[in-house]
Write a structure and sequence with these properties.
The protein contains 11 helices and 8 strands. The protein is α/β, with parallel strands linked by helices and about 270 residues long. The chain has one domain: 3-Layer(aba) Sandwich (Rossmann fold), CATH 3.40.50.300. An 8-stranded mixed beta sheet has the order 3-4-2-5-1-6-7-8, with helices on both faces.
């Protein structure tokens, strides 16, 4: 199981929308996905039509050493499971900060799920802040996926998250953390600025930036209010097509990386 943290300390960039819909689209392609809602606001939880559940978040596992597998719940989408969020996670920030192992704690908690072989990917929807939960997620993740809004302030947020990633590597908490990809979101084809931001990010980061670009659509904004992913709510719309393209590109990147690794091992 690979752990993918979807994060940006700037709010309103499509982070939760991407976590929900990438997870759902991967699941429709037959990939076994566990979506973990680490944001105390629980938007990914409600966005998939699920209510917050007392002791249904990772809080008991993080603070009280309960088995995290007890918190896993199924969703309406085959191959997609979730660990819900709850407002109790807000208090988790303080309690984890008081522990000496707060950076490694989430990685330890996720280990039984890794060992189970039940999932191909765990996707972490992180809170939009640089607090303990986000840094714990970065320390636990194998890879980082950053959604960036196609506006000027999105570039500022990207530079900050790249700096935090480097700090996580340098302090030894997670030296192997990869910036797996950057996803451009809320793209408005009518605005020149959006295309300029996309071009600037691609010129600087190259192939790290996904080819799939997520448009700004009313349907993407409406879907969570109905408790549905975009592929449930508007499967033939532009938003669903964009996220399916993102999921296919995500799968293709994994296949290419696996092939390259096997070729390297074979040559050795």
């Amino acid at each position: 199981m690979r752990v993918i943290a979807i994060t940006n300390q700037k709010g309103g960039v499509g982070k939760t929308t991407t976590a929900m819909n990438l997870s759902a689209c991967l699941a429709t392609r037959g990939v076994r996905v566990l979506l973990i809602d680490l944001d105390p606001q629980a938007n990914a939880t409600s966005g998939l039509g699920l209510a917050q559940e007392d002791r249904g978040s990772l809080y008991p596992a993080l603070v009280e050493n309960e088995d995290p597998r007890h918190a896993i719940r199924s969703t309406r989408t085959p191959n997609l499971s979730i660990i819900r969020s709850h407002q109790e996670l807000a208090g988790c920030e303080i309690e984890l900060a008081q522990r000496g192992n707060h950076l490694s704690r989430l990685r330890e908690v996720l280990q039984p799920i890794r060992n189970s072989g039940q999932f191909d990917y765990a996707i972490l929807d992180c809170p939009p802040s640089l607090g303990v939960l986000m840094t714990s997620a970065l320390s636990a993740a194998d890879e980082l996926l950053v959604p960036i809004q196609c506006e000027y302030f999105g570039l500022e947020g990207l530079s900050k998250i790249v700096h935090v990633v480097q700090q996580i590597r340098d302090c030894g908490a997670n030296p192997g953390l990869l910036l797996e990809g950057i996803v451009m979101t809320m793209f408005d084809s009518r605005a020149n600025l959006g295309q300029q931001v996309v071009n600037d990010v691609r010129n600087y980061f190259g192939d790290v930036v996904y080819n799939a670009v997520i448009p700004r659509t009313v349907r993407l904004g409406e879907a969570p209010s109905f408790g549905k992913s975009i592929v449930e709510y508007d499967p033939s719309g532009k938003g669903a097509q964009a996220y399916m393209a993102l999921a296919d590109e995500f799968i293709a990147r994994r296949a290419a990386a696996t092939a390259a690794f096997e070729a390297t091992v074979g040559a050795a």
